[in-house]
Amino acid sequence: MRVSREQAAANRRRIVTEASRLFREKGYDGVAVADLMKSAGLTHGGFYGHFESKEALMAETCASSGDIRTRWERLTAKRQQPPFQVLVEQYLSPRHRDQPGHGCLFAALSVDTARQTQEVRRAYTGTFRKFVDMIADWVPGRRANRRRRALATASSLVGALVLSRAVDDPELSSEILDAVRQQLLGATASATPASSGKPAKE
């Protein structure tokens, strides 16, 4: 039975959404196409009607994370705090750490992406550039060297989250998040508890 163009588009979005979650949770190699399609509620054979290969889907999940600014602006609009503070507190929160499937592309898949095809790495790089550009607009202080500070901030955020997930000591994990949060926000952050709010997904 032939599906409508609208239904085909909806099915494709469902595949991309489910793949984004599963790739973040299990890594690219940990997700088989058959399992992905089953999770999306679609048939295995239907996959290749949407994508030429699993690598093409991987690239699209990276590119689909590119609307980072809109999602973070929506989150920051709900809070009476500077956007940079909201970003740091939400990104380095225990909830973000504990829910990789609904969190940041960079913290979940950077190591995997480094081993992938140029197509996947190009899509990832484009999304990362947008993340850095957003931080550059929000980072406090003078405009001089904002890009450099934004790159350092992005690296600190991602690195801290990766390490906090990797260690098997819960106390050390929280200590990593707290230390980087305080470093990025300054001494006043020591009196600010970690937010448990859901982070914007990249």
From TrEMBL:
Residues 32-51 bind DNA. The keyword Transcription regulation applies. Signal peptide: none annotated. The keyword Transmembrane does not apply. PROSITE patterns: HTH_TETR_2. Keywords: DNA-binding, Transcription, Transcription regulation. Residues 9-69 form the HTH tetR-type domain. It comes from the Bacteria. This is Transcriptional regulator.
